[in-house]
Every structure is written in C-alpha cells, then in structure tokens.
Structures
1.
Amino acid sequence: MKKFRTELKVTSSPSLIHLESGIFTQGSCFADAIGHRMASHKLKACVNPFGVIYNPESIHKALTYSIFNEPLPEHTYLRNQELHLNYDFHSEFATLEKDALVGRLMNTIGSTHYALKDSDWLLLTYGTAWVYQRKETGEIVANCHKLPSGMFTKSLLPTEVIVSSFTHLLKHLKRFNPQIKVILTVSPVRHLKDTHELNSVSKSVLRVACHQIVSQHAGVEYFPAYEMMMDDLRDYRFYKADMLHPTVEAEDYIWEKFMERYFSPELRDFVHQWQTILSAIRHRPFYPQTAKHQQFLRETLKKLEELRSSVPVEEEIALVKQQITN
C-alpha cells in the first residue's frame, strides 16, 4: 500500500531523561502541555511556573530572574483599574494589593531558583517572534495586560537578537547549573491575530534562531514539535474546534515521539506501566461492590505499593483504599 503521509522519524538523543531526572519547562502552550504530561507520569517536573510566555526575550528574562533570585525592578509593576500586575509575567499573577503581588512573585522566583538549580533538563517553547515594547522604557513585555495599544510598539525580533539573548541566558545558566541540558521547541499553535502571513514570518524567525542556537551550543537540542504538527499531522482532524490548538490525539502522537527521542528504555517501560495504573484508577464501574471489581482494586493497590519506593503514590493509594470494602 502507498503511504499517504510523510512521517517524521526521530532518533534517540545521546542524552536521555530518566525517572529521577528533574525537568523545568517554560514558554508557550506546548511547554505547558508536555510539562503536565511529564508531571502526570510522576516525573519531577516544574511546569511553566511563570505562566504562559510566548516570546523568547521574555522567556529568557523570567529564567534570568530565577537564576539570580533578586527583587524585580520597580518599573515592571503596573496597575490597571483595580488590579496590580507585572509586565514581565502572566496576568494569572494579578492581585488587588501590590504587596500581595510582590510577595507572590518573589515566592515564585525563590522556589523556581531551587527548582532550576536541581533540574537536569530545561525545555523552552517559543511561541512568537512578535514582541511589544513599552514606549516609555523601550523594554519588551511578556504581557500587555489589556492596556491601550498606543503605549506599545509592535516589532519582529531579529534572529540574531534571539540567538544573542539565548547565549546570554545560557552563560548564566551554565554557571548556575553546569549539568543542565536544554531542549528548544517552536510552538505548533499558530498566532493568527498576526495574520496567516505574519504568523509564518514569525515561526520562520523562531525556527532559524533555534537552528543557529543548536549549531553554536553543545548540550542544546531542538525537538521538532512544530514540524510534526505542520507537516506530519497536516490535517484539520488533528485540530480542536478553534482550528489552532492540537487535539488530544495530536498531543498523544507528539508525546510518543518525545518519549521515543528522550526517554530511557526504563522510563518508557515505567510510563506504559503507569498509564495502565492510571486507567485502572480512573475506571468507574456500574457496580463497584462486586467481588470481581474489589479484586481488581486490590491488584491495583498492590501495584501502587510496589512503586512506593520509586515515586510518590500516596494520593493514588488513598484513592484506591477508599473504594475497597472490608
């Protein structure tokens, strides 16, 4: 039979992720999705702690804040109507009192300082090369927080600026955590508010920047999530109703490819074992009191207790025990 698609093949990375590895993800929606998948499979993952951030410059800045663990500049704070916010962070950090915002951001920076220090891998996902600069300071913001557009200038980050910004970050990162390895990705989600044409320009800039970064720095790899969605899965049945975000099936496919490239054989075995246990935990029978289902629960409990020394499963054990009748 003829092949009707061009499958993107991946090879195993020379460096592999293990069950005990620490992973830190930051960036756009893909960093969020892949990070939560790893966390749900019991990997030690710190997932998008600063919220979704789309442009490379702001992603690098947030990580630099974590490395140095210092107070944020006063001019990065703002107030919009009743809410206090910060230009360098997502609006999910909004508070009604400025002191509460300062405290929350510093607590997040403090916790991510130690998480980044203990991480073996850093996964960065760039979403767009279009950025907004504050006219009063010239600084690039992570979020405009619905302020008037006249306060900002929109521009396209040049490739060389992205490469230089990453190089600057990597220099500090390697001093802070010499063993850390970096995976770069370009988000497969299109930013059609910029129009189809300018979204293509943006993604092209990001892809060229990633290529140059990987060519210049050892220990930095590129994972082709963007190419998988655009070229391998190139069909609208793999998109949600908004025709922009990948479906669960598409995410499953990219997740399998990610595991194939980066997970050790032992970790892949564990993930498949854990998926079976998760399915058992989530199963809701019509008649939970039957002897057959109770035996099923006891077998699931036994599997969980065997994993106790390897991963934290206390929550799952408690959930299963609640369903077992004496």
2.
Amino acid sequence: MERIPALDGLRALAIVMVMGYHASRQAVPAGFWGVALFFVLSGYLITRLLVAEHDRHGRINVRTFYWKRGVRLMPALMVVCVVVLGMGANWQGVVPALAYYANYARIAGVDLGLLTHTWSLAVEEHFYLLWPLAIAAIPSKSRLRVIGVLLAVAVVWRVIAIFIMSPGWVYNATDANGAALLAGCLLGVTRPPPWRFAGWSIPVLGVLIFLPIFGQESPLFLWGGFLAAGLAVVAVQYATTSPAWLEWRVVVWLGKISYGLYLWHYVLFRSGMHLALAVPLTVVLAAASWYLIEEPVRRWRVGRDRHRREREQALLGSGVDQGSTVESPKPGD
C-alpha cells in the first residue's frame, strides 16, 4: 500500500495533542482525545492493508500479519520497559504493558506507574489480533454493510456503557473504544471522495482539546469521544488528499517517530523531570528509537521476509502449504 505522508502529519498532530494533555491538564484539558485520532487512523490503515491483501490474493496471511505487527511494536516497547524497571518500577506495572492488557489492568485498579499510557497500546493490539480474522471472514461484497453494522453496534454499546459501566471502563476498555476503531475501518472500505471543507475538522479538533467542557472533570467527558472520533474521521479523509501543510518535512518526521514519542513522553513527564528538559529529551529518545531500533528491525524483517518468499517460490511445485492463512468464505459456505 502506498504511503501517504500527510497521514504521518496527522500522527504528529495526534501525538502533540496527547503530549500537551500530559504536560498540563489545565492548559490542554481534552488533549487525551488525540488517542481517538490514533484509533481512527489505525482502523483506516489496517483495514486498507488487509482488504488490499485479501483482494489481491483471495486470503489473508494471519501469521505474517501478526509477525509484522509484533516486530514493529514490541522491540521499542521492551526497551522502554527495561528502562522503567531500571528507574525502580516493579513488574506489576510492566507485565500488563508487555502482555497488552494494561487497559483492563488499569480498570482493575492496578497501578501501572510510568507505563499507565500503555493502555491505548493494549486497545490497538486487541484490534490487531481480531480484525484480520474478521476481514478474512467477511465476503468482499458485504464488507461495507457488515462493518457499518459493527460500527452501529459499537456506537450503541458505548452509549449504553456510559450509563451502566464505570467511567474507567468506558475510557479504557477495548469494547468501549471499538467505535473509533471501526469508524476508521468503515472509512477504509468506503474511501469516499474528499468532502468539502473537510480541512476545518483539524482546527475544530484543535479547539476541542482546549475546552474544559470535554475534560475529565466535565460530565461531557465521555461523550466527547464521539465528537473526537467523528472529527478524526473527517481529518483522515482530508489527509488522504495530501494537503501540503501536513506534508511539511518536520511534521512528517514527527509523525514517523510518533510511536517513540508516545512511549517515552509519559515516562519522562511523570519522572519528575522539568518539562523544559523532558520535551526535548523525549524527541531525542524517540528519534533514537526510530533510527536505532524501529528502522533497523524493520529492515531486518523485510530482508527476512524476502528470503522466505524466495524460498517458498522455489518450493511452489512441491504442494507444501507454506503459511497459516485464513481463507475467505466461498459462496455456499
């Protein structure tokens, strides 16, 4: 799938929102909704990736998908966890982060300390685990209808959860965040033409994060997730038109290292370090994570996968099944 630089620019905006919130909840009371933008982006990109693979090959290689996600995400996270342990943290907070159940551990009252922010990584990992199986199971001609229904169910459930579940559940649980992810998924299969004035979604989202009415102290706190996700959908659609300002070199670069920025900023911001030092050090560590861990691991993985494909091609005539795949349903199944 062709890379869209403006989507990296959108990632940069999302991480700036989140970092602003963690830097000062008083100044940026609703900046945490930058996470909703990350969720919509993930739903959009992963769905496009999986649909393209399914349409091209008639199946999805689930094992390869899991392998790529794990290799992409785990090394940098492991380094952060080692550093946090070295800073005096205990395993009680590290294990949920590494095992990707930090969101439910947080709901259960586990003190995750400097790794509290990994709750959103757990939500995305659960999505990565389930969504390839879902796309493989949905007939191509039914994707729009089925994903639309799933989105409607997710929206209704979040509304119900706001009334019957704890605020911690609605904010952290994977099921309650499914609406934002599925909104991105639906955009990934519809890919409508650019909407007029879609560019206004980004400044509106920017204004939203400064409004106390959507902060954690407000009764509209949880309802703001719907507005944030809706604006995020429009913003993603706008970014696919490749607006020049979202493709500025610095903005795209920040988007590329946004995973490292997300991993490191909370650790430094909550370590007692002054923000004047924590912010630039976060950028330095995120850049180091990208150039010394994430990119080298990616190149190693690409080389390894290329070697495996060449080996498989040499065995094509043997009739040996070389991968764990999930076949799409056939008519009459």
